[in-house]
Amino acid sequence: MRRVTSIADLRTALAAERRAGRTVALAPTMGALHDGHLANVRRAAAEADVVVVSIFVNPTQFDRADDLAAYPRTLDADEAALRGLGGAAPAYVFAPFEREMYPTTPTTTVHVGGGITEVLEGASRPGHFDGVATVVTKLFHVVEPDVALFGRKDAQQNLVIRRFVTDLDVPVRLVFTPTVREADGLARSSRNQRLSAGARAAAVGLPRALRAGVLAARVDREADRAPDPGRVRHAALATLASVPDVAVDYLEVVDPDTLAPPDAARGEAAGVPAASSSAPGPSRRLLVATAAVVGGVRLIDNVEVGDVEDEDRLLAATD
Ligand code: PAF
């Protein structure tokens, strides 16, 4: 495993790998690696010959300076965790300094429209997805991966990445890996390490709320009805709102392809095929997405109702 900090050095190394006929996977991260990241890296090793893990706390995706300052930076521990993967350890850790990624104040931004960046996280964190889409585009240009892997916890981010990869013909295959959860169901996140003991106990309200939403959807499905978005939302929100010390930012039930209200007209702008399983029917897909501030730490989580594997994983983790 080799740490590379310069774009030029990484390009040189990867060009040699490609000349030798090897394929390349990229797992982009902001460090503070946890089991979710490590599962992603293991999967990357199964998807390509050479794995690059990028570790870069991208300032342009933070809307608050205090949040950026508080973001954990643990490069040595991250590298030790990656080495611990043994045969699945990445060949390269790309850990650029800020001046390498942004030598001048950037004047070009990748902005994904179609209504998917203004809602949910985008409504609470203005400019966040421009920062994400721009830095991921830059990483794709630097690494030119055959495949790139992202965790499903960031469902909206994944939709944004899917959209610009399609719209800009970026030649990369995207793989979204299941959310890895703690024993009580809390989604693994780099932010969890900032939770006090009390906040950590309250944080389990997020996956429990999603569980309530899935169970409500299952009641509808068992009666051969399409899961009712209003009922799913009510069940999930009632659970989350009952947990003391959790300030709900949003809990929404949306179309997983457009992030629009499930019954809204399906927008061409988001490039969604006319016939989709998010149309009403027992197999209807709904994204239940939430963000809440717990003990001063902002956490997100989601589950895709109608994706039975995603539902089952959440139910098993919160049992
Ligand atoms: O999900 C993250 O950790 C970041 O948003 C990403 C994709 C590495 C871009 O900075």
Description:
This protein is of the alpha/beta class. It folds into 2 domains: 2-177, HUPs (Rossmann fold, 3-Layer(aba) Sandwich); 190-317, Pantoate--beta-alanine Ligase, Chain: A,domain 2, CATH 3.30.1300.10. Helix content is 39%, strand content 17%. The protein has 12 helices and 9 strands. It has helices spanning 7-19, 35-47, 65-70, 75-83, 98-101, 121-124, 128-143, 155-167, 197-203, 205-222, 229-241, 308-317, and strands spanning 2-4, 24-29, 50-55, 92-94, 147-151, 173-177, 246-254, 286-294, 297-305. Strand 5, helix 8 (155-167) and strand 6 (173-177) form a beta-alpha-beta unit. Helix 7 (128-143) crosses helix 8 and helix 10 (205-222) runs antiparallel to helix 11 (229-241). The longest helix has 18 residues, at 205-222. It is globular. Mean pLDDT is 95; it is low at 265-275. It binds pantoate. Residues 28-30, 58, 61, 132, 135-136, 154, 157 line the site of pantoate (PAF).
What tags apply to this protein structure?
Rossmann fold; globular; six-stranded parallel beta sheet; Pantoate--beta-alanine Ligase, Chain: A,domain 2; three-stranded antiparallel beta sheet; 12 helices; 9 strands; alpha/beta; 319 residues; 2 domains
Radius of gyration of CA atoms, rounded to a whole number? 20 Å
Mean pLDDT: 95
Number of strands: 9
Main sheet characteristics: 6 strands, parallel
Write the CATH fold name of the largest domain. Rossmann fold
Give the SSE layout:
Layout: E1 2-4, H1 7-19, E2 24-29, H2 35-47, E3 50-55, H3 65-70, H4 75-83, E4 92-94, H5 98-101, H6 121-124, H7 128-143, E5 147-151, H8 155-167, E6 173-177, H9 197-203, H10 205-222, H11 229-241, E7 246-254, E8 286-294, E9 297-305, H12 308-317
Pantoate binds at residues 28-30, 58, 61, 132, 135-136, 154, 157.
